[in-house]
Amino acid sequence: MTEKDLPSAALVHKSAFVRQNYSNEWLECNLNAFPRYLIYVADIDNEIVGYIIWVQKSGFRPEAVLELEQLAVMPNSQGNGIGRKLIVESLPQVKNQLALKQSILKHVLVTTRADNYAQELYKSTLGAEVETTISNLYSADEVLMIARNIGKQT
């Protein structure tokens, strides 16, 4: 994501996360936190239809633990494999970015609503498994999923 992508990505955020506010500010502050925050967009015919935010947790480490912090796709573009493509195509770029700091990917954390069908996406693309449920964290129960030793996967 670049600064010029912010207005369009903010529309995706606003559409995907209707209970959240200040979409442009949210994405801008994350974009400004590079390289801790690594953000990629999906576009179709020069229109941004989705984005993914990866976050390095607990410092720049030789073995990085990342959080897939946010994945969003415009509602009218959902169900077309865009979320899957964002994960699969951005992850090698994330690993390359980590390598610039002599780091490799160890684990990936994901939190999502307990009733979110995207859990299957995280399981099939990352190998993430539900570790625990956190009651009433945001708008409902959340699950913490972890994909362990993902850097060793091909």
Automatic annotation (TrEMBL):
Q: Where is the N-acetyltransferase domain?
A: 1-150
Provide the GO MF annotations for this entry: acyltransferase activity, transferring groups other than amino-acyl groups
Q: Which SUPFAM superfamilies match?
A: Acyl-CoA N-acyltransferases (Nat)
Q: Which InterPro entries match?
A: Acyl_CoA_acyltransferase, GNAT_dom
- Superkingdom of the organism of origin: Bacteria
Q: What is this protein called?
A: 3-oxoacyl-ACP synthase
Source species of the chain: Vibrio hepatarius
